[in-house]
Amino acid sequence: MTSPALPFRDSVRFYDQDAQLVSMLVDYVGPALREGRHAFVIARPGIAHAVSVRLHREYLRGGAAVGVLSLIDARSTLDQVLVEGWPDAAAFDRHVGSLVRMAAAEGRPAVAFGEMVSLLWDDGKPEAALRLEALWNDLQNQGAFSLMCAYPARLFNHVEGDAPYAPVLGRQREALAA
């Protein structure tokens, strides 16, 4: 099955509770699956499970044309892309970039969500989080796929000034202005 070309989209969202994140993901991934796309959800296990349950209840009943849903553990993937605690470009490409290339080879435009950057923020490693954010951006430059990033608002509530957070906060402002 070949889907029409997917326009490049990049969105950044902030949430207060995990239930909000689950709703955002279901609304993002559900329509893509109905269109036959490949959806990669790289998330904590509880989030991935809740997304799966809601997707099956709200989008995937009734035998409609369905894409491919890949639920991937964010912490385990993060551990695979870190080398000595730092995001490694080759490891990221091997464990994440290969997923996007696989979907493209199948003729399925991909949509992706990755929670690894927010895990690094939450671990108190903002420099590593920004590096991982840059690797996601580099991957998008290699081929069009839609990416949604979401962060717990509490990670940014204490921020005074935007400088260290400009790559994330700037993308949020762009998304809100669009």
Write the layout of secondary structure elements.
Elements: E1 10-15, H1 18-34, E2 38-43, H2 45-58, E3 68-73, H3 74-81, E4 82-83, E5 86-87, H4 89-105, E6 110-114, H5 116-122, H6 126-142, E7 146-152, H7 166-177
Explain this structure to me?
The protein is α/β, with parallel strands linked by helices and 178 residues long. The protein has a single domain (18-177), classed as Rossmann fold (3-Layer(aba) Sandwich). 52% of the residues lie in helices and 19% in strands. The protein has a five-stranded parallel beta sheet. It has a two-stranded antiparallel ribbon with strand order 4-5. β4 (82-83) and β5 form a beta hairpin. Mean pLDDT is 83; it is low at 1-8 and 171-178.
Helix content: 40-55%
Q: Which regions have little confidence, pLDDT < 50, spanning 5+ residues?
A: 1-8, 171-178
- Outline the biggest β-sheet: 5 strands, parallel
> Major sheet: order of its strands?
1-7-6-2-3
What is the CATH fold-level name?
Answer: Rossmann fold
**Got a strand count?**
7
Shape: globular
CATH architecture: 3-Layer(aba) Sandwich
Percentage of β-strand residues? 15-25%
Radius of gyration, whole Å: 16 Å
CATH classification class: Alpha Beta
Number of helices, counting only DSSP H or I runs of 4 residues or more: 7
Q: Number of folding domains?
A: 1
Give the helices and strands as they follow along the chain.
EHEHEHEEHEHHEH
Judged by helices, strands and strand pairing, the structural class is alpha/beta
Distance between the termini: 31 Å
Summed over residues and divided by their number, the pLDDT gives a mean of 83
Pfam families: MEDS (PF14417)
Organism: Caenimonas aquaedulcis
Protein name: MEDS domain-containing protein
InterPro entries: MEDS_domain
